[in-house]
Amino acid sequence: MADTDPSLSKEEEAALRAKEEAEQAALPYKWTQSIGEVDISFPIPATYKARDLSISITKSSLTAGIKGQDPIVKGDFPHSVRTDDSTWTVTTSPDGKTKIVEIHLDKVNKMEWWPHIITTAPKIDVTKIVPENSKLSDLDGETRGMVEKMMFDQRQKEMGLPTSEEQKKIDLLKKFQEQHPEMDFSNAKIN
């Protein structure tokens, strides 16, 4: 589903959401995602074992199903995955009548939502995703540093104080003034 138009009525919005839910429910598999991972699951008869399955995960595609039958999931991913960190398992369902194949995919880009698992499947509206709260400790070092700097700058602005960039300029000017006491900076303006 494409990005929704803000001018849509509540009824039109609800109809689009219902259509999206129906399309997703019709898929032969279920899927969920976090910002960094995708999980897919589908049932198989309880008589099958892992050796009866044919599952191939590449950087850009997935083929999964029972050997000798049409795949349950087959196609190209909308974005790349890390194959070394992507896995699959077979577990018995709680009622014992079926088994569940669970495929875990590790996204390469951990900063984007997928509109679908494979490019031929119906899309979801990723603009409607409400991410779960995350902790700074969950982020890698570079991303964490960037987020902490943004948070610091936001707090500084709210208090009417200089941001980290503005503070750097002020400190640089002070240092220059100390090195050149003969110059008059009384009418200087900082941009």
From TrEMBL:
Residues 8-21 have a biased composition (Basic and acidic residues). This is Nuclear movement protein nudC. Residues 1-21 are annotated as: Disordered. One of its GO terms (biological process) is protein folding. Keywords: Cytoplasm. Residues 24-118 form the CS domain. It comes from the Eukaryota. GO terms for cellular component: cytoplasm. The keyword Cytoplasm applies. InterPro entries: CS_dom, HSP20-like_chaperone, NudC_fam. Gene3D superfamilies: 2.60.40.790. GO terms for molecular function: unfolded protein binding. It is found in: Cytoplasm. Required for nuclear movement. May interact between microtubules and nuclei and/or may be involved in the generation of force used to move nuclei during interphase.
